[in-house]
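Example 3.2
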Amino acid sequence: MTAGKTVKHLLEMIRFSHTLFALPFALLAAVMAWATPLPNGQPPDFQPRHLLGILVCMVCGRSAAMAFNRLADRFLDAANPRTAGRHLPAGILTVATVAGFTALGAAGFVAGTLLFLPNRLPLLLSIPALLFLFAYSYTKRFTWLAHFWLGTALMLAPLGAWVALRGQHLLDAPADAWPALVLGIGVALWVAGFDMIYACQDASHDRQACLHSVPARWGVPAALRLAAACHAGMLLALALLPFTSPHLTLGTLYLAAVAAVAMLLLYEHRIVRPDDLSRVNLAFFHVNWIISLGLLILATLDLLL
């Protein structure tokens, strides 16, 4: 296989385009961090290398975590008719190639944190963050809370961006983290909800394979109801975000974005029903990237204009 084809298959394997799910929230946290005065009243110090650092860490961290997930799940994927055609079970990519890609992504993630120096918190937290991301791959073997572990993993995107840009002030003023924390909670609930919807496709197989998920444990209707509750919680977190700091000037455009997110989530839940899961991929892959990217654009305009 040529190097070009190998790279193409690796990007397909990790669904590189789905970086759009979490990256906009990391960038939104960065915009909020740059638009909000520091606890000492001084304006934040914007450095182009900080933006590069966020992009490098997000892309490399997600790529490493996805590749590791495919390694950890390769035998489970082979036993599931829906996933048996994935790159490792199908023999399109080798274990050695994917392991090397995982190591390269992890190294890139750690290296990216050096762009935030002299703030050393991102570097010190990089290995624990990677271990947390990698650990998700094993959670469905022992707990139905795996969806919330995944949500918490993506919650690290806005929290990580905030720590990277303002971490030197958090020890003296922990309340400064409230905007990123509330946004992160919204992300965690959003991801947990749509992961439950996605897992509905494998409910029967997961029961037979003794794997844990909300649909496998309580059934598809209950999973869809809990996913809806998670998404209602996300909307509540987004609605509370403007009140987390008196200096966070989120107004009309942001509220319009939250209203649009509510409509998109309602649409997502209308097109996926317990007796018809044929449009899960539409809900999962298309609606969700519109939500994250649209919220980033409108909130950024609201903060900067």
